[in-house]
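Step 1: inspect the first sequence and its tokens.
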Amino acid sequence: QYQFEESGGGLVQPGGSLKLSCTASGFVSDYYTIGWFRRAPGKDPEGVLCINSISGITKYADSVKGRFTASRDSAKNTLTLQMNSLKPEDTALYYCAVADYSGAYYQCRYDDFHAWGQGTQVTVSS
């Protein structure tokens, strides 16, 4: 059973930065996908980024490319999300999630993930 520790959300002005961190435990295999998702009120969940555990290849949503950067510490099972140039439309509850196969990174689709953190709120507002 997976467990997650998420941190780093908060309130920031447009153009500002935040860093989210997720430490996961309970992995039973080296083959998995770990990612960040977000859900804004009234909207469907969106995959922000997903990482293949074996190759390290990262798939970013078009909406965050060039602004968000992921880094992973495999030894500590920690995934960090550096968010720069934040916009009001980035406001959402951000979740760390795991899928039990490494190929899930490519589509980074909400339905493929079965283990979720509790979420951390990011609010971008002046």
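Step 2: inspect the second sequence and its tokens, then contrast the two.
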Amino acid sequence: QVQLVESGGGLVQAGGSLRLSCVASGRTFSSYDMGWFRQAPGKEREFVAAIRWNGGGLYYADSVKGRFTISRDNPKNTVYLQMNSLKAEDTAVYYCAADSRMTSATMRSLVEYDYWGQGTQVTVSS
């Protein structure tokens, strides 16, 4: 079992930056693959970025590639999402997710993640 708590969301102008954090409880964080997803009003939850348990594999949605960076600090039980050059269409609730049984083929699939945080709101004004 792992519990996830996101933070770092807020209101930012287009072109600005935010860094989201997701802190996990438990002593086995380093064995979990981690993902970030987002859900805008009236839309389905979608994949944003993911990172393998050892940081050895990084995955991004095409819409954020080159602007967002996912990273993790295993001793701190934390995964980050650095978001630069934000656009109005990045406005959403951002969720982090975890699972210990992922493969490279499933890292982008939200249905494969067993553990989810409560989300943090990101609003980008244009």
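Step 3: confirm your contrast with the notes below.
The chain has a mean pLDDT of 95. The chain has no helices and eleven strands.
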